Amino acid sequence: MNEHYIAVAGARPGTNTVRHTVGVVLWWIAACLISVMTVAPLLWTLATSFKPAGEILRNALSFIPQSPTFSNYVQAFTTVPFARYFVNTLIVAFGGVVCNLFLGSMAGYALAKLEFRGRHAVFMVYLASMMIPSIVTMIPTFLVLRHMPLVGGNDITGDGGMGLINTYWAVILPGAAGAFAVFFMKQFFESIPDELGEAARVDGASEFQIFLRIYLPLARSGLAVLGLLTFQSGWNNFLWPLIVLNDPDMMTVQVGLAGFTNNYSTDYGPLMAGTVVTMLPVLLLFLFSQRWIVQGIAHTGGK
Question: ABC transmembrane type-1 domain: which residues (predicted)?
Fold first, then answer.
């Protein structure tokens, strides 16, 4: 009997080792499958952007172009004013980043560090607004922008009204102080000690000086994360610019990519070339700011 128990006890470490090995192998297989599923479309897009039209139709799933060509990139910038769309998107994306960082950080600072009546209720309203799908608020937002008095808007309804339609502000203002930006910066400012602001108040600093000179520099990593997310969202935005921008000279790259498709055919080569060019700014921005992003995520997670 004792020998049987000893044999069973001696088998347990080996059994656990086998289970651990099988688990590790399955984990690696799942990780590789997910990686392939994620990276394969990007590689196919890059390969297709260098393929001639005949090769795309003949061997669409190939990841290695047999006759590489740059004609698709030339055609992408000549078929439509893609360079103009690129500039428009840069203006809209960077404008959204500046507004969202400044206004979102100010609102987050107020909700985190200032005591005023209704602060909790205001924060709950912001959180509740994050639960509402953006498609629900598109028509009200469009009507508000449509009737805002700013010279330069176009009257698209014919009733004599002027507004922000067909201007950069029509894309920038609706997300100038987004609920996520306010929530993110509030959580970040709450991790910074209150004693810093109290010491500055004793020295006679105003509330705006405390925010601008003390708390804002300490939140650089959080601002970097929020800035990248805001830029990515503004750069990849398609539906809202399509609604509020109907002038060809004001369109963004995402809307411009639709110019390579019609009811009967699609120019896959120029479309993929334009897609590759469109992805570059976000990738470059991430590469140059990844140190701040890691610090911001670590800071927020370590809280």
Answer: 86-289
Rounded CA-CA distance 186/180 in Å is 10
Which residue reads 């610019």 in tokens?
A: 241
- What tens digit of pLDDT does each residue of 135-147 get? 888 888 888 888 8
Query: Cβ(47)–Cβ(64) under 8 Å?
Result: yes
Question: How many whole angstroms separate alpha carbon 45 and alpha carbon 208?
Answer: 48
Closest CA to 231 of 272, 192, 288: 288
Least confident of 126-140, 146-160, 256-270, 286-300: 146-160
DSSP three-state, residue 235 = helix
Ranges of each domain in the chain: 2-48, 75-302
Could you give phi then psi for residue 261, rounded to 5 degrees? -120, 150
Pick from 60, 91, 85, 84: nearest CA to 272: 60
Q: How many CA atoms lie within 13 A of 139 on its CB side?
A: 1
Longest dimension (CA), the chain: 98
97 falls in which pLDDT band (50, 70, 90)?
very high
CATH code for the domain defined by 75-302: 1.10.3720.10
189: part of which helix (H) or strand (E)? helix 179-190
Residue 33, CA distances (Å) to 20, 21, 30, 37, 208 in order: 20, 18, 5, 6, 51
Mean pLDDT score of the chain: 81
Identify the residue whose tokens are 């990738």.
283
165: left (phi over 0), alpha (psi -120 to 50) or beta: beta
Number of Cβ within a 10 Å radius of residue 221 = 20
Distances (CA, A) of 18 to 12, 15, 256: 10, 5, 55
